[in-house]
Amino acid sequence: MLEKLFPAEVRWARAHEQVESEPLHRDEAKAAAAMAPKRLREYTLGRACARKVLHDLGVEGFALCNDADRVPIWPSGITGSLTHCKGLCIAVAAHREHVLGIGVDAEPRRTLSKGVLDRISSESERRHLACLPAVPEGGDGDWGLLLFSAKESFYKCYYPLTRRFLHFRDAQVEFQPETGRFSVSLANHEAPSAQGVRRLWGRFQLDVNHIVTGVVLQPKGAAPA
């Protein structure tokens, strides 16, 4: 799925069972010392994936620690994003000369309850989802779950650039099912733009078990992802 989500400049890695035994960097281990076993496993998988993408970008031995807001601190000149859910862990990263911001989110396929969908979406978004064709690929899941994931990816791209907290309804999603793309626009007019941009584009992919979304902010003049 991941080859189709991002432009060629983005490097990605997904977790496999063998990476669990890879040791954390000393500073990463210090930050993880008090984590519960489940959280520690997720953290270890994420850092193993991050080491792989950083290696592909020419960076070795870097400790990927979090800041006070629990946002990973990537090396200077690099932007990246992590996601983990049951059965899947992904890291993506790129040099900032090619990508200014990036976000990725993975979710196990499931159907969101009406109550959850109502909390995370606007009335116009729900009307939009109701007009879309059936979600592709076999398995559970619906456009509501994809909308949730799209907003998560958008926020992971947006927050490191602005340090502005957003509520789910502060962003408006519109899907293009025929192309596997979506746009996310800032619906809260008081929210700052991301590098002068208020509408970002992303892509989505599905298999039987998971859905994955990705959002990138590229420099002005770059070919659309």
Secondary-structure map:
Elements: E1 11-14, H1 26-31, H2 37-56, E2 78-85, E3 88-95, E4 101-108, H3 114-120, H4 123-130, H5 143-162, E5 171-176, E6 181-186, E7 199-206, E8 210-217
Keywords:
three-stranded antiparallel β-sheet, five-stranded antiparallel β-sheet, alpha+beta, 225 residues, 5 helices
Describe what this molecule looks like in 3D.
The protein is α+β, with helices and mostly antiparallel strands. It contains five helices and eight strands. The strands form two sheets. Strands 4-8-7-6-5 form a five-stranded antiparallel sheet. It starts with 10 loop residues before the first strand and ends in an 8-residue tail after the last strand. 38% of the residues are buried. The model has no long low-confidence stretch (mean pLDDT 93).
Mean pLDDT: 93
Biggest sheet features: 5 strands, antiparallel
Name the assembly state: single chain
Helix percentage range: 25-40%
Distance between the termini: 15 Å
- The count of DSSP E runs of length 2 or more, i.e. the number of strands, is 8
Order of helices and strands: EHHEEEHHHEEEE
Poorly predicted runs are none
Radius of gyration: 17 Å
- The 3D shape can be described as globular
Count helical runs.
5
Strand arrangement in the largest pleated sheet: 4-8-7-6-5
Helix vs. strand class: alpha+beta
**How big a fraction of the residues is strand?**
15-25%
